[in-house]
Design goal:
Shape: globular
Oligomer: single chain
Structural class: mainly alpha
Distance between the termini: 63 Å
Number of domains: 1
Length: about 280
């Protein structure tokens, strides 16, 4: 028998059994992730440039993107919980809540993509064409994010005692563009690394970047495709947004952990300069 995805009972069950518990679990997991990484974050904040030199603007920018990505995600999941976990006595303004949550979320996706783009530009030795393509992709993505924030709608649902997202379907082009831009960046990273596969120097760094690139590509694909598919299927409001926060957390955890792993392998890679090419042949 076919499921009526828009049946009120089905919708209520999905909100109660999936969304609220889903966001609670996601919040708990990310709180653990943040706490676990605080010692590293504090070390990065305190650290100066290598050999007593001041950090470059590019290194400070990269570090700021990393930190913003981590802590804005925490703000986003807390904001999401405020709406989906509201009660009758703590009813929230759903329009304000939606715009705040989406602003956090889309900014986080943009920052995670910037972390990828920084690697791509560096691996390609700041090649002008590749740099222009990365900037264009990030600008296109940001444009769709701004468009979506303006168009987002939500209302209070007294039946399910939660904020109900009304305009999730308008996210279709936005999440599709996000997937396309991230795939382009990750594939460009791997292609750039493949060019140096026979390098005699910097082999350890090359292997680390190659492994991270493959893992990142797999994680981004597995995290982003479910949201894209469900939005295009448009089963109901609950299913439209059920994977949005988990997707965001997975992408952020992957991006920031790989930053930490690379930094731990070679602090100078991100702290003193973006010039990873110093370890690759030119």
């Amino acid at each position: 028998m076919a499921i009526d995805w828009n049946d009120p009972t089905t919708l209520a069950e999905q909100y109660l059994a999936f969304l609220k518990s889903h966001y609670t679990v996601a919040t708990g997991f990310y709180l653990w992730e943040v706490v676990n990484g605080i010692p590293f974050d504090w070390h990065v904040v305190k650290r100066e440039g290598t050999e007593g030199k001041k950090q470059t603007v590019s290194a400070l920018f990269t570090k700021s993107v990393y930190l913003a990505c981590r802590y804005l995600t925490l703000a986003s999941v807390i904001s999401a919980d405020a709406g989906f976990g509201a009660t009758k006595s703590s009813q929230v303004n759903c329009e304000v809540w939606m715009r705040a949550t989406m602003t956090f979320s889309y900014l986080i996706f943009e920052l995670a993509s910037i972390l990828i783009a920084i690697r791509v530009i560096t691996i390609w030795n700041r090649h002008r064409v590749m740099t222009a393509l990365c900037v264009a992709g990030l600008a296109l993505q940001l444009g769709y994010y701004i468009r979506e924030i303006v168009r987002e709608e939500a209302k209070w649902d007294p039946t399910n005692v939660t904020c109900l997202v009304l305009s999730a379907q308008t996210n279709r082009p936005t999440v599709t563009v996000t997937l396309a831009v991230d795939m382009f960046l990750l594939i460009s990273m791997l292609v750039g690394l493949w060019r140096w596969r026979d390098a005699s120097c910097g082999r350890g760094l090359w292997s680390l970047l190659w492994q991270q690139g493959l893992i990142w590509l797999a994680v981004a694909t597995l995290a982003e495709i479910p949201t894209v598919v469900l939005l295009w299927l448009n089963l109901n409001q609950a299913m439209d947004v059920i994977f949005f926060t988990p997707e965001m957390i997975i992408v952020v955890v992957a991006a920031t952990r790989m930053y930490r792993i690379l930094w731990s392998y070679d602090p100078a890679a991100y702290i003193s300069t973006l010039g990873l090419e110093r370890n690759l042949p030119t």
